[in-house]
Amino acid sequence: MKKFNNKSGFTLIEIIVVLIIVGILAAIALPNLFSNVSKSRAEEALATIGTYRPTVEACISANPTLASTKCTAALLGNPTASTNFTYTLTAPSGSATVDYGVVATGQAALASTDTITISRNTAGVMSCVGAGKLLGAC
Predict the structure, then answer these.
(1) Domain span at residue 64?
(2) In this prediction, what percent of the chain has a pLDDT beyond 70?
């Protein structure tokens, strides 16, 4: 009878060392992954708002004294909602104002408190404000 003394495989120490190395790599990589996801969502909202702004600006330019009646949210419509955001236009108010705002409100993986607001005041000054997970996105 022949006896086989073939010792192949990994030792427990080798497996533990590999698991520790994988854990360290995951601890380094995962925070970067999650921050990139938030950045890409913010860029999506800014891009959508950015493509909608010229429509509002053109309407206000074409109707400088009637902006509040000609450039309403009902007439211009809101940008199309996406998986991550719903969009709301705050149209100009008053007889000769040029102020407006577009708000991207988070949905799905984002909370409703995660918002990006781009607005223009009556002096024509643009501003961008992020809130929640999108704070600092502008």
Answers:
(1) 12-134
(2) 92
